[in-house]
Design brief:
heterodimer; A: about 400 residues; Aspartate Aminotransferase, domain 1; Aspartate Aminotransferase, domain 2; 7-stranded mixed sheet; B: about 120 residues; alpha+beta; Sufe protein. Chain: A; 3-stranded antiparallel sheet; 5 helices
């Protein structure tokens, strides 16, 4: 694959930057930045409001964006709710789902590798609705223990909410298996696809997921936009989450009725400029093809693991390249992840260090945190070489053996 | 030579001062830095309004561990009003390295814990 760095202006303004933190947020291609700028310069007016041409044009572009996102995951456009981020998508569910769950269901199943955003809302939900949380454990190879999953997903399970891909290990979870297992027990399944969306093609119809959440900012799109997919029949049953303008049908002083989903979940002025620019991000991925992107990343991940392994004192947290996307964690004996990241930063290398919003997981692994490397379409072998060379410098600076 | 990781910082990281537990503390407190999950617990033994002894426990980066050693060393035999008036600049002067806003939090965590401990008397003597 040719050097894709030229598509991303960040590298023009930050000489020699090695960006290895795409799992935290993507860099944005020029086309997305242009789409955002062009919209505000040429087409801006509030959507769903004006009778005039400009507002109609903005509304049309907003609807096209929803259609584009729907097409990207093979959903219908009326099954796509636009939110602020993955966290808000999951919170929307955590504030509306209780009404549609059968009363004899008493448990929620999560996994031990959930990001706080797919754990904390459910802790609160469980507390409010008097349900019990169960966790699918992880194995020594940083994968889910599916035999344990088969035991805890049972008639008592109201729903399973789980991540498609671990943001710490890169592990690709067998969501097909969990979905089929859960549906047999009449349990709903919510998938957090924040980490998988730019690496694995997702077809919600084939998957048969009930809900699926992800964010624009991790897929080359603007910040401030999240997506929640839900099966139409389920979305129709859920009550609204936020109330106000844009989601009402009829309002009197003491009573209101609401419009249909998905708009009934989109109260107030949306981040419509950012939503519209998300179209360019989806097009960027489609033009490059997810298969080509992930093949390139896999080659780099394999190269990175091979070379990191040679460093004395390093421990890699990744289930193996065929079971993961291009994310891996590592620790170095005697070095704190923050110090390692700080020294790499002096070499212009950006990695993530810490608990990665997975505090209970770190506790289970008995470590304060890890260093995380995550790759994207623009990364090169030279980036990995720079990382490897600089880790040697880290060890010298911190006087590690 | 790396500015942030000078010899004195690394020495204190590898061989911290005042690390451990006090059998007979009068004040204690712990706090974590939610950004990185690092946690520091500090115990004080206060007598006649003076810090007679202090120990800390915890794991963290070189900056937070070195700062914990330095501040516990500094407050020994200090009177409580002096300790309460310590601020960011005192820590920076002690640690003598340039710190970004994020790393400043690592350096300041132990000062926060010391101040928390003063508000949290576990036993009076």
């Amino acid at each position: 694959m040719q050097d894709k760095k030229k598509d991303f202006p960040i590298f023009k303004y930050n000489n020699n930057l090695v960006y290895l933190d795409s799992a935290a947020t993507s860099q944005r291609p020029q086309s997305v930045i242009d789409a955002l700028k062009n919209f505000y310069e040429r087409d801006n007016a509030n959507i769903h409001r004006g009778i005039y041409t400009l507002s109609e044009r903005a509304t049309e572009k907003y609807n096209q964006a929803r259609k584009k996102v729907a097409e990207f995951i093979n959903a219908n456009e009326n099954e796509i709710i636009l939110t602020k981020n993955t966290t808000e998508s999951l919170n929307l569910l955590s504030y509306t789902l209780h009404g549609i769950l059968p009363k004899n269901k008493t448990e929620i199943v999560l996994t031990e590798m959930e990001h706080h955003s797919n754990l904390v809302p459910w802790q609160q939900f469980a507390k409010r609705n008097n349900l019990k949380l169960k966790f699918i454990p992880i194995t020594d190879n940083y994968e889910l223990d599916y035999s344990h999953a088969e035991k805890i997903i049972n008639e008592k399970t109201a729903f399973v909410s789980m991540t498609h891909v671990s943001n710490v290990f890169g592990t690709i979870n067998d969501i097909e298996k969990i979905i089929s297992l859960s549906h047999k027990k009449n349990a709903l399944v919510i998938i957090d696809a924040a980490q998988s969306i730019t690496h694995i093609p997702i077809d919600v119809k084939k998957l048969d997921a009930d809900f699926l959440a992800f964010s624009s900012h991790k897929m080359f799109g603007p910040t401030g936009v999240g997506i929640l997919y839900g099966k139409k029949n389920l979305l129709d049953k859920l009550p609204p989450f936020l109330f106000g303008g844009g989601m009402i049908e009829n309002v009197s002083y003491d009573f209101s009725t609401f419009i249909q989903s998905p708009e009934k979940f989109e109260a107030g002025t949306q981040n419509y400029g950012e939503v519209i620019a998300l179209t360019a991000a989806v097009e960027y991925i489609q033009n490059k093809s997810l298969h080509v992107i992930s093949a390139h990343e896999k080659e780099l991940l394999s190269y990175a693991i091979e070379n990191l392994k040679k460093i004395k004192g390093i421990k890699i947290y990744n289930p193996g390249i065929n079971k993961s996307i291009s994310v891996l964690s590592f620790t170095i004996n005697g070095g704190h992840p923050h110090d390692i990241a700080a020294i790499l930063n002096e070499e212009n290398i950006a990695i993530r260090a810490g608990h990665h919003c997975c505090m209970p997981l770190m506790k289970k692994l008995k470590i304060p945190g890890t260093c995380r490397v995550s790759l994207s379409i623009f990364n090169t072998k030279e980036d990995i070489d720079r990382l490897i060379t600089s880790i040697t410098k880290v060890k010298t600076t911190l006087q590690l053996q | 030579m790396n500015d942030m990781y000078r010899e004195n910082i690394l020495d204190l990281y590898k061989s911290p001062l005042n690390k451990g537990k006090l059998e007979n503390s009068t004040h204690e407190f712990s706090k974590n830095n939610p950004l990185c999950g690092d946690e520091i617990a500090i115990q004080l033994f206060v007598k006649n309004n003076i810090i007679d002894d202090v120990k800390f426990q915890g794991n963290g980066c070189a900056i937070s561990m070195a700062a914990a050693s330095m501040i516990t060393e500094k407050i020994k035999n200090m009177n409580l009003n002096e300790v309460k008036s310590l601020n960011k600049d005192d820590i920076l002067e002690m640690i003598k390295i340039p710190l970004s806003p994020v790393r400043l939090k690592c350096a300041l965590l132990s000062l926060d814990v010391v101040k928390g401990a003063l508000e949290n008397e576990s036993k009076s003597i």
